[in-house]
Design a protein that fits this description.
The structure is a single chain. By secondary structure, this protein is mostly beta strands. It contains 2 helices and 23 strands.
């Protein structure tokens, strides 16, 4: 009986809380159906090309809600497949600004592409800007955002004996919007210590990025450019000719840390034919080079063409053809075509 009373009381409290807040639930189911042809370039170990058809529920399929408790207090959550927490945060408007506590997209994110292959890859590692959804403390003052984010520890080469993090990472952005034009300036910085035996080295990473978009009636175009050092610790980056996201890291050697310089850019544009059809194309490029004499630049590019076909409100199929192309000896080239099927509810 006592357990029953506790359950009833808990349900009553939940009901009261739900009634007091405005909950707006949403969901998105996404299935990817793609045929890929991967060319593996390795002169030392010849490998046959790999052709493959895949059909899968995309990992970024989701269900969630936005919540408004009052004009000062809002929040939200979002779960993906797995089940993994994509977003879970609360935000307090204290008058002069806003304080966000939780996990959602951090300031160092820009979305100007609608590339759907690779679970909506959006060319984010092939010239785009994507630091992901971070567990963060963020302050917003108008169009300016600044956030403390976790420090990521990763490097190529020798494995560190141990690592130390003494300060959080920092990301910031400033956005400007007009009738048909938007602009965003963003940056990020982090630092940690990597020990190799009794010797300690600092691993510093930074990224500075500029992006913008123009909407001219039925036509639109957007893109970004960035430069950075050891940028793989701050954002997605790939030079391997596929839709991987884990390059651009520093290298640990017997004599210390070798920094990895990077720059990238992407552009995507489209034309809205009517309410049912939109056509879009995009191109991205990224290059990294270790900061040491004789280092070879590692480059990769990606490009695609698609059509967004809206069958009904919230129901769409997006056929797409594209290429991920790494130009170094040990990289690969992946050509793909297929479609993403999506229903938002």
């Amino acid at each position: 009986m006592k357990k029953l009373m506790v359950m009833v009381a808990a349900l009553a409290m939940l009901s009261t809380s739900a009634y007091a807040a405005d909950w707006n639930f949403y969901g998105s189911a996404r299935i990817a159906t793609f045929y890929t042809s991967a060319e593996i370039n390795n002169p030392l170990v010849p490998v046959n090309d790999v052709d493959n058809y895949s059909q899968a529920l995309q990992g970024n399929s989701r269900i969630g809600a936005t919540v408004k408790v009052s004009d000062e207090l809002t929040g939200g959550f979002e779960y993906g497949t797995g089940v993994n927490v994509r977003k879970l945060y609360g935000e307090w408007n204290f008058g002069g600004g806003k304080l966000l506590v939780g996990q959602t997209y951090s300031p160092l994110n820009m979305f100007y592409s609608n590339q759907v292959f690779g679970s909506d890859n959006d060319m984010l590692a092939q010239g785009g800007i994507y630091s992901g959804r971070e567990a963060m403390l963020q302050l917003t003052f108008g169009d300016f955002k600044v956030a403390l984010v976790p420090t990521k520890q990763a490097n190529d080469g020798l494995a560190a004996t141990s690592t130390e993090t003494k300060i959080p990472g920092l990301e910031a952005s400033y956005s400007m919007k007009m009738d048909s034009f938007s602009l965003k300036l963003a940056g990020g910085y982090q630092s940690y210590e990597a020990d190799l035996g009794a010797v300690s080295y600092d691993v510093d990473s930074y990224v500075v990025a500029l992006g913008g978009k123009v909407d001219l009636g039925a036509f639109y175009v957007g893109g970004n450019v960035y430069v950075g050092q050891n940028a793989g610790n701050l954002m997605a980056l790939s030079t391997s000719g596929d839709n991987g996201w884990d390059d651009g890291l520093s290298a640990m050697t017997a004599t210390g840390i070798v920094d990895n310089d990077a720059w990238g850019a992407m552009i995507a544009g489209g034309f809205v034919v009517n309410d049912m059809f939109t056509v879009e194309a995009g191109y991205g490029f990224v290059e990294t080079e270790f900061d040491v004499a004789g280092s070879i630049k590692d480059k990769a590019q990606a490009y695609y063409l698609q059509s967004v076909i809206t069958l009904a409100p919230g129901v769409m199929v997006i056929p797409e053809v594209g290429v991920f192309d790494g130009d170094e000896d040990l990289d690969s080239k992946t050509t793909y075509f297929g479609a993403k099927w999506q229903i938002n509810f």
